Structures are given as structure tokens and as C-alpha cells.
Amino acid sequence: MPFLAARVLRKLFTTCALAISHYLWKESIMKKTRQLKELLLSSSLEFVLEAHNGLSAKIVEEAGFSGIWASGLSISAALGVRDCNEASWTQVLEVVEFMCDGTTIPVLLDADTGYGNFNNARRLVKKLEQRDVAGMCIEDKLFPKSNSLLAGGRNPLADKEEFCGKIKAAKDTQNDPDFCVVARTEAFIAGWGLEEALERAESYCNAGADAILVHSKLNTFAEIKSFMDHWKLPCPVVIVPTKYHTTPSPEFEKAGVSLVIWANHLLRASLKAMQDTAARICKDKTLMGVEEGIASVEEVFRLQDVEELKRAEAQYLVTGCADK
Ligand code: SPV
Ligand code: MG
Description:
By secondary structure, the protein is an alpha/beta fold. Helix content is 50%, strand content 11%. The protein is built from 13 helices and eight strands.
């Protein structure tokens, strides 16, 4: 009898352990917020690529990336406006929702300044969580911001304490403990230098940021490297090497960077392809010169997952009318 009880107990224990580990496994691979947090905390250098709509987001995932940067520059450019909050935050939200719906990897939204003060930022967090956005990056500039790489752009910095309040409000608002708030300092962009960058990053970290993004518009890694040499906190560091693109990625890893954002490369690639194709069709007045070099209509259908709709129609769409 005791033998039987022991067996029953062992079976019960194994079943519970399996159920718990299955739950944990499912949670960790299913939740986009957790995926993003793990990317930030990963012990090796990770990469995310920019997307600016549902289609480009799918392309990022298919290419094998583990995360998507919803770039403010690229989204606004794709909408035909400038990157200085000309697109409203709800318009950005609409775009980002399509990106999340079409993919299974996490989207990190470039949320500029949080579109206002702490109150706007915390409302934004609510809306992002509702739309399955895994995290947001907010930067210490003033609303309306201008793009960091713009030659001669004005980049006054936000008050450090005020920005810390914004980070705290965002962290206090999130429902999902894994939703990530990345705090971005523009100290180098605004010309304030290393000491200010470190001081701000440390304060943002202490205010509860899940990671620090430190940006530079130099065409060498020097500024960011000096930051990394002095960075002693356990908070992960994210970089955007658009301007210092000649630095080999192992240099970033050696310096202790956690995540690299390739911030605008699909937008720029498609821009060039669209300009060339438009010019060629306009000049030739025929499609013969372009057809071979562009994606087929079937490829468009594949990316839209038209097959899934066909299967669903077969299952659900019972009609009495005769289709030929
Ligand atoms: C973006 O992709 O919108 C960024 C990075 O914020 S940068 O354009 O370099 O400011
Ligand atoms: Mg931006």
C-alpha cells in the first residue's frame, strides 16, 4: 500500500512539474514582451531591424530577426511627413498595430518623447499594451522632437528629473511586468558630452528603465565606446549605429553593448528600388524593363497569406450563390 501511495504521489508530482514547465515554456516563447526582455538581457549581442508598416515587419521576421524596431523616422517618412511629430501618436499607433498583427516577434516602438509629459507617456503605455507592442523607447528631448541625425537640427534636452518622472510613470502604468521601457539619452546628439550622457543614463536606470539607448551621430564608434568604457550598471545598453556603420559588429560586443538597432535600412532600400522603378516605367512607357527585377504579384499574395483566407473560406463561407 505505501508503495502504491508513493507511486501515485510521484506521478502527481511529475504531472504538476510538467504542467508548470509547459506553462513557463509557453509563456516565455509566446509573450512578445518576454521575448523583448530576453533580447535585452541576452548574454550575446542581439540585433533588431527597422520596419515601418505591416509588410516590412513581416519581411523583418521572415529574414530571421528576433525583433522589430518601429522607427519614428521610417514610419513618418513612409507616411510622407517629417520626423518631428507631424504624424500624430494615434496615427503611429495604427501603423504599429498592423506591424504587431502580422508578426510573432516583438516590436519595440520608437515612441519619441512619449508624445508629451508623463501623463501622455503613461496613457501611451496602456494603448501599446492593448495592441501587443512589446516595449517602447522614449528619448530625453522636448515635444515636438526633431530627428537626431538632421544636420543643424535643434535638440534641446528635457530636464533630467522630469524625464525620470516620465520613466517612473510608464513603469508604474504597465500591466505586464515584462513590458519594456527603454530610456534614450540624446546627450551626445545635443552636444553635452560624456559626463552628461553617463549621469543621465544612470538616473534613467535608477528610475526603472529596462535598458538605456545611447545615441551618437559621429561617423565613428568613439563616443559610444567611451560611454561603454565607463558604464558600470547592470542595465543593458542599446545603440543605433546608422552613422558609424563602418564599425564591425564584434567591436560593439567587445564594448559590452547588448542590442543593436539597424534603424532605417528597409525604408532606404525600398526608397531606392521605388525611385528606380518609377523612373524606368516613366521613361520606357512599358513594363518590359522592370518586370524581371521586381517581386511577382504571387509574392505579394504570399506575404498577405492569401492561402489562409482560402482555407477559412472553405471552412466557413457557405454560400448558396453559384460561383463559376
Ligand atoms: C528612428 O529610427 O526614428 C530613430 C533613430 O529614432 S534616428 O533616426 O537615428 O534618430
Ligand atoms: Mg526616432
